[in-house]
Amino acid sequence: MKRILLLLLAMTGTAWAEGVQAGDTAWMLTSTALVLLMTPALAFFYGGLVHQRNVLNTMMMSLASLGVVGVLWVVFGYSIAFAGDHQLLGDSSFFFLKGVGLEAKGKIPHLLFMGFQGSFAVITAALISGAVIGRMSFKAYLLFIACWSLLVYAPMAHWVWGGGWLASLGALDFAGGTVVHINAGIAALVATMTLGPREEHGRRALLPHNVPFVLLGTALLWFGWFGFNAGSALEANSLAALAFINTMVSPMAALVTWMLIDLYRSGKVTAVGAATSVVVGLVAITPAAGFVSPMSAILIGVLATFPSYGALSIRPRTRLDDSLDVFAGHGLGGISGAILTGVFASSTFGPPGDLEGQAKLLGIQMVAVLAAILFSALGTWLILKGISLIMPLRASNKDERLGLDITAHGEEAYVTGEGAILMLSKSLPKAVRKKVENGDIRSAS
């Protein structure tokens, strides 16, 4: 039977690569699926936080990343991030997956390693969308995430995980504190400042339309995050178990801390705040997940809560319209986690080597944080400015008032008739059409 199986594999041109382990491969297949789940989970988290006239557009921004960034990662991005040994940028040797097959990459097939890393690229680009919902042109957004994933995300992934200069420096980022969260958080901040605030910002309360969506998205994100962090061990081993437990306890600690702050300040614990705290705890433990003890993970969850909570409290009183507080949650959470990794990293729990939280390591972590901030800020600004030369970055004022669900996608999340009115507006009397264009849908109907 074994000979027959080997013969069939040979006939189809397929063979098990030497060094590939079945158990590790099974775990990484599962982890890749878990991380991919995080992008639709993010769609629910973001979608529940916005006004109902923009919920489909918000969710589509996440869904679109699965296609646009996913395909570009396979064709070009993976090579830019993981090919070659240059300190700043990968080379073209893996373009179109040339040389990427079933041969072993560690203990898993190379092709699977590529797919796992691609799931990170997809959600990182999608995270940025939370800062620009309700006002960014969908066409401009698609072009932006395509360019950003290749010109900002992939090079930074090379710096940290592909043998680049931050890896050579000794910077620690187990699963994406700098590459994913600081990168996306800073990009979100720059995009917010470049596009400007929504038309209604500061003039009316922009309340979440579906808090149960937010809670559902949070639960699915937490579930997927076990693949995100524990999968970054790249094997089914004790390091994966450590990252798994740390991913469990850090957001628990952040949740308790956030609720206590809420009770102290207002006497009420909001569901949206609780959901946000879980995400902050997950973000903060991401760079440290495989380097710290569970007790240190709890401390990281507690300590990371305060800067994010403070930023979320202050931001509504400013002109900064980071719609869903991507910078406060992911940017500051990632910065806190990356720095605290330098404080709490321990060779007792992490990989062998001198990982104790000494001043040198802390200094290296700060260099990595600063490099991520500067590179993401500059790269994002240049991409947005470049796109603005060929198309508008923002939707029109009329489209913003009507909602981007109807104007960008021709659909409604909830059937109210507004979409039908808009589609028929060209045949309506001039006076009625003017009311439609001004957003006075009810009067127009």
Describe the protein in words.
By secondary structure, this protein is an all-alpha fold. It starts with a helix and ends with a helix. The protein has 18 helices and two strands. A two-stranded antiparallel sheet has the order 1-2.
As a percent range, the share of strand residues is under 5%
CATH topology of the largest domain: Ammonium transporter fold
Number of strands: 2
Major beta sheet summary: 2 strands, antiparallel
Share of residues in helices: 55-70%
CATH first level of the largest domain: Mainly Alpha
Can you tell me the overall shape?
globular
Label the CATH architecture of the largest domain: Orthogonal Bundle
Question: CATH homologous superfamily of the largest domain - what is it?
Answer: Ammonium transporter AmtB like domains
What separation lies between the terminal Cα atoms?
72 Å
Number of domains: 2
- The Cα radius of gyration reads 23 Å
Q: Which secondary-structure class do the elements indicate?
A: mainly alpha
Please, how many helices? 18
The average pLDDT value, as a whole number, equals 89
User: Would you identify the regions where 5 or more consecutive residues have pLDDT less than 50?
Assistant: 4-15, 441-445
Helix/strand order, N-terminal first: HHHEEHHHHHHHHHHHHHHH
